[in-house]
Amino acid sequence: MLLEVDRLVVHYGAVQALKGVSLVAQQGEIVTLIGANGAGKSTTLRSINGLNHPRRGTIEFDGKDITNDAPHDIVRMGIAQSPEGRKLFPRMTVTENLEMGAFQRRDKAGMKEDMDRVFELFPRLAERRTQKAGTMSGGEQQMCAIGRALMARPTLLMLDEPSMGLAPIFVQRIFETIVEVNKQGTSILLVEQNALMALDVANRGYVLETGHVALADDANALAKNEDVRKTYLGEI
Q1: Is this model's pTM higher than 0.85 or not?
Q2: Burial per residue of 174-183, b for 16 or more beta-carbon CB atoms within 10 angstroms, e otherwise
Q3: pLDDT reported for residue 232
Q4: Distance between CA atoms of 92 and 100, rounded to whole angstroms?
Q5: How far, CA to CA in Å, does 41 sit from each of 3, 46, 212?
Q6: What is the dihedral sign for C-alpha 92, 96, 102, 103?
Q7: Opening angle at CA 216, ends 9 and 173, nearest 5
Q8: For the chain, what is the total number of helices (H) and then of strands (E)?
Q9: DSSP character for 133?
Q10: Does residue 235 surpass a pLDDT of 70?
Q11: Which of 201, 193, 230 is nearest to 37 (CA)?
Q12: Burial 213-225 (b: 16+ CB within 10 A, else e)
């Protein structure tokens, strides 16, 4: 098992954000978390990457307990995230933003290799490598945020709302890239409002409701589930 989250309980002050969330991701999988705003999806990712420390429960990655590890140690172990809202450095160029993703690395040959890989995945970034990130479109910035996470050479890539606010043509490109990155050997944990597209690319999915897992199944089965279709896929 690559990632195992077991009965995670997280509070923000007096508010209980996660109420015993459990999930697993195996090597090579795309696993998606879907649910309404406030369901606990982003909090789950923030707990895995070390930004939130749970009150109860455990997180194991590649056989190691990382429940209370620091974020920089978790990145070093092989988990990287493209955050909701992208959070690029707007006054830095595309290349400089990508280099920030590799800030803990010292293997220059490997970093060059990964930079080339990012430019191959996102040719538009190669064209804009000297452009300041803050002057690009939302879709281009999302590509840069994903590229920055890939520069850490993660075993597990976590994506938080990668399609949010993007034009349809960029949404399609982002999801094609998610599939390609996965084919190249990176496991993916995907939080996504666009449940239909998320379930289309994922192997398995979890439906979160107010801090707990309401449903867990193969992505195809969730996409056919009547309750999921009505609530998250906009069908009546």
Answers
A1: yes
A2: bbebbeebbe
A3: 79
A4: 10
A5: 16, 9, 10
A6: negative
A7: 100
A8: 10, 10
A9: G
A10: no
A11: 193
A12: bebbbebeebbeb
